[in-house]
Amino acid sequence: MRIARFSIDGNVAFGAVEGEGTVESGGLVLDIIKGIPYTDFELSGTKVPLSKVRLLPPVLPNKVVAIGRNYAEHAKELGHEVPEVPVAFFKPTTSVIGSGDAIEYPSFSSELHHEAELAVVIGRMCREVPRDRVKDVIFGYTCANDVTARDVQKREAQWARAKGFDTSCPLGPWVETDLDPSDLAVQATVNGEQRQLGRTSDMIRSIEDLVVHITEAMTLLPGDVILTGTPAGVGPLTVGDEVAVTIEGIGTLTNKVIKRG
């Protein structure tokens, strides 16, 4: 099931996405969910065309835990070795935007890069999750763009500013709850030109590895997000660019880059 979060007439709700097509092409409707989707829920039967609503980030995470250098070719293109343990960092909630929202080019950077990623959405509070229970704590999956101020990342030892600035974490367009994430195509295009194309089967650490590793240290809450790393092909974004992240079985997350100010 595809679960979207949206606003209409000043109200915010979740809905199940039904129909065929894309956000842009039309043909999709939302069956409004009673309550929140992390627990047992009912569909209201009240349906609205997706074209009549504003899509919001599909979740409001308490935290976004991101993983760096989880594809060997991406580590290589940046001149790094594959790390012995997963490289984890945080992106703040203020960095999260939805599909269709603008990425604001930060004033303190002159080298902004896209990073297409599969995002894992947590469905229940969990800590010290054993490997065989990882699937039980996952709500679903969505598309993510770990937008990075690469020049800032190179000169600052901590990545908080390089990867945590406002609008640096687009998520969407919705969460797909019924998906095998083990071998999905992950693609990024800029102005329609393909920049990245990889498969989740090329990840160095699997989703199970990452959930076990992260929850050894911290409690994850419903709606929290794990970014699983990006394949090779990252590259520059400029003001006016439209960047799209497409993941097989989920859909396409699209954002335009604007000047902050």
From TrEMBL:
Biological processes per GO annotation: carboxylic acid metabolic process
Gene Ontology MF, one: acetylpyruvate hydrolase activity
Xref: InterPro entries: Fumarylacetoacetase-like_C, Fumarylacetoacetase_C_sf, Rv2993c-like_N
This protein's UniProt keywords: Isomerase, Metal-binding
Ranges of residues in domain Rv2993c-like N-terminal: 1-58
Listed Pfam families: FAA_hydrolase, Rv2993c-like_N
Superkingdom of source: Bacteria
Residue stretches making up the Fumarylacetoacetase-like C-terminal domain: 63-257
Record carries keyword Isomerase: yes
PANTHER family: ACYLPYRUVASE, ACYLPYRUVASE FAHD1, MITOCHONDRIAL
Protein name, per record: 2-hydroxyhepta-2,4-diene-1,7-dioate isomerase
